[in-house]
Amino acid sequence: MTSISPLSNWNSAPSGASSATPNRTQAASPSSPSAPSSIVALSPESVNDSKPAALVKPPMVWESATRNKVSDAMTKSFSSYAFGGRFSGLGAAMLGQAKLGNYNFSQAMRQPPPSATPNVYAASGIAPGSLHGNGEDRVSLSITTKSGVEVKLSLDSQGDGLAVSMTTSGDLSDAEASALGELAKGFQEAIDGMGQSTPKIKLEGLMQFDQQQLASVKLHAEVKVRGEPESIQTLDFQADGAQRKVSFSGVAGSLDLKVDASALNTLGSKEKQAKALGSYLKQFDQAASRGHGDAGLVAMLKDSFTALHSNTAAPQVATDSPETGKWRLAAEDKSILTGLADFSASVSQAVKFSNPMRSSEKDGFNYDVSQKTLQAGASQDERSVRQQQQSKLSASFHETLVPGVPLRLLDNTESQNYTYHQIEDTASSDAQVAYKDGKMVKASLRQEGNQSEHVMKYFLGKLESDKTTPGNYSVLRDLLPVLGPYKTGELGMTPEKKAEQRQQAMLTLSDDVLLQSYAGQSIGLWRTDVQPGAGEAAAA
To answer: For residues 393 and 428, is the Cβ–Cβ distance under 8 A?
Structure first.
């Protein structure tokens, strides 16, 4: 049997070990350059008298014969079937081309299926270029420069092929090309993070983009999780000079985080921001421990939170005009602020029903935390500043009655020995100052926390106890004695001593205003200047 198939749009391509010039057997030239070629493939039966032939692995088929570091990286990584391995080194190699002035390129490779008949032309019936935009695993990066040029990168992978491309909407300056190249390592770290068996959000490198040359950075990653059942996990990231966003969705659950960095006048020093970051990261761990949250999801929250709050700084030089924000804030105003940009974050763990005998009992973890700053007033001398922080934890989980013995709930009473926990916690902090005729007339701090744990204990399927444990705290402070223009007890002090004492008081207050979701021992360190209920006007 003889079969004839057309070969149009044929691309010669070297294998990983070949040179840039394709090594192929030369067929007769067609009469016209535009006429389609044809290849003749003899069936195994016609060659071997109907004896089965050994399968032959055809050479790799390439979209373009051009070889560079990107093509080399594709050759090295193709043998890996895992998402992370398939794109290993590719993101960095692609952005590395920007420094060499290569901004527009497209490359794809495809492995034809094994055949009993060697294909002497190294051609595939399916063009490698069709992989672009159709991968089971895909990553795209979009960068817009300050001059308005958009740069797009894409990576696609599926079982038999790999494709990458990079395009620009215009010419790049040397400085812009250099700024792109500087993101190579960060881009690769983000890809590698999503490629791990337990995905990680690694955006620190991308967040360090040069804001003098680049206006925005956007990343989208989509990974097929090969398991039973199959699923998709996605990551979206966007950052510019004013706003940063991250969202993740996967097997474990989902994460959303937004940071508004447009109001530079509310930002604190690097040291103050680092202290506030540390405080929030500690609270994330506390919430995860109390609510038995998924370790991978909470780690992604911490990594994202840290990354999105980086590469922001308060202006260092005082001018007559306000910084970015409504008003120019005094040191007293900033002492009631965390120093971080406003944000909202939420983590939602995938719900599981682990007890077949009680379908109403679920294992879940939902955590929300936010900060919002309001600046109001008719003028600088009539301004008011208010910052509110909030957190909420809702969680439920099962625990074994015997420490160290794994819990295995089955559809029989003998396995029903456990405690079922339901957690509901909230915390808030509300700090504010107000001025009239340029003088501070109000300053207050209110912090509250409420915790509730409902525990039901079962032994051999019977309810033995049902108990709810509440916990709460509330602190209301009048801050005028600390921040106001007139303080008692300062008579006889030198101006230097007054300034030193005032500076120390504001530093202490900067620590106190941080949200305390689980105050614990910290509550004992606070001085309650106004008892709850005795000074409502101060916090109104």
So the answer is: no
